[in-house]
Write a structure and sequence with these properties.
Blueprint (H helix, E strand, L loop, with lengths): L5 H9 L11 H19 L8 H8 L9 E5 L5 E7 L9 E2 L12 E3 L5 E3 L12 E3 L4 E5 L11 E3 L4 E5 L12 E3 L4 E5 L12 E3 L5 E3 L14 E3 L7 E3 L2 H15 L11 E3 L4 E3 L1
Parallel strand pairs: 2-4, 3-5, 4-6, 5-7, 6-8, 7-9, 8-10, 9-11, 10-12, 11-13, 12-14, 14-16, 15-17
Antiparallel strand pairs: 1-2
Length: 280
Amino acid sequence: MAPRSLLLAALSASTSFFAQAAPATRRQEDNLARDLATLKAFAETITEDPQDIKANWTAAGDDVCQWAGVTCAERPDGVLAVAGIDFNNYEFGPALRADLILDKLLDITFFHANSNSFTGTLPDVSALKYLYEVDFSNNRLSGMFPLEILNAPLTFLDLRFNNFIRELPEKLFQMTDLTVIFLNNNNLTGPIPDSWANNQALTELLIANNTEITGVIPDKLCALPNVTLIDVSGNSGMTGRLGPKCRQYAKEADRDAKNPPKDNSTIARTFNIEGTGLTL
């Protein structure tokens, strides 16, 4: 699924009053200088750059808003800042550290870094009050699942295809605005906490191919009003008969697969339990 940038649009809409911005103030210059220094320091750690992205950065000089993969926008207080990072498929390497960049860009709304070579873990992002989207899928992150990444007001979290370990954290569903969760192809363990069914905003849950996840899908999870994707396939440790709400959801998803909704405003539901011991 393509990473979403709806939050940046929302931020831009919320700052439309500043569309005719005055010339940069010292406050703005300091803000961008901080972000430029962060990105320059991070660039020094990149020694594998198959798409020659750093050449673009060099050509852009100190105008960080012209760097490939960098989006600038005004904050709600009118200060111009680095508002988003999109390094998707840049294939930077060989051993990048998220703590040299992610938590240093204090104004970002999204950080997308699919298919690079970030290693280690993720830093505490509690200072990032605008951060809504994080995508570090298909990297080489490892160790305990970083609860610190949940200290921002996230709506979208994609950590697929890494090597995190940990029991599925209850804290994920204490985040009432988190709509999309992709954690498949890690080494997560344990049952799906019942509390995960408390997040009324959830639309998509993908936790497939974590072979040590156990138990069944909490029945209330299948009854969430906005959920359109539940995929636990390949979790061979999951066994047992699904509850009535999940069985009903499975029937509706099967119907949508055979007869996709014709109304573009309606999203077809998907329910996948292949490769598990779950039964209907």
